[in-house]
């Protein structure tokens, strides 16, 4: 497995909204506030986990 750091999913459209579970999610990058704050300190593996969750969230009809 590579240690290459994946790029941030930030698209400079920052707008936090509360989802159906009461979690604040950025509508631009789909990260939680904790994920945004911790991003620069995350390992490549942790970032890839976040990116996989984002991919699933974007595909979910609940995020439309």
Provide a brief overview of the structure.
With 64 residues, this protein is an alpha+beta fold.
Mean pLDDT: 91
Order of helices and strands: EEHH
Beta-strand portion reads 5-15%
Give me the secondary-structure category. Answer: alpha+beta
The domain tally reads: 1
N-end to C-end Cα span: 33 Å
C-alpha geometry: globular
Largest sheet: 2 strands, antiparallel
Q: What low-confidence regions span 5 or more consecutive residues with pLDDT below 50?
A: none
Number of helices: 2
- Trace the largest sheet across and list its strands: 1-2
* Cα-atom radius of gyration: 12 Å
**How much helix, percentage-wise, in residues?**
25-40%
Give your account of this protein's structure:
It is built from 2 helices and 2 strands; from the N terminus they run ββαα. 8% of the residues are buried. Helices cover 34% and strands 9% of the residues. The model has no long low-confidence stretch (mean pLDDT 91). A hairpin with a 5-residue loop joins strand 1 (16-18) and strand 2 (24-26). It has 64 residues and is α+β, with helices and mostly antiparallel strands. Strands 1-2 form a two-stranded antiparallel sheet. The protein has one domain.
Short descriptors:
alpha+beta; 2 helices; 9% strand; two-stranded antiparallel ribbon; 64 residues
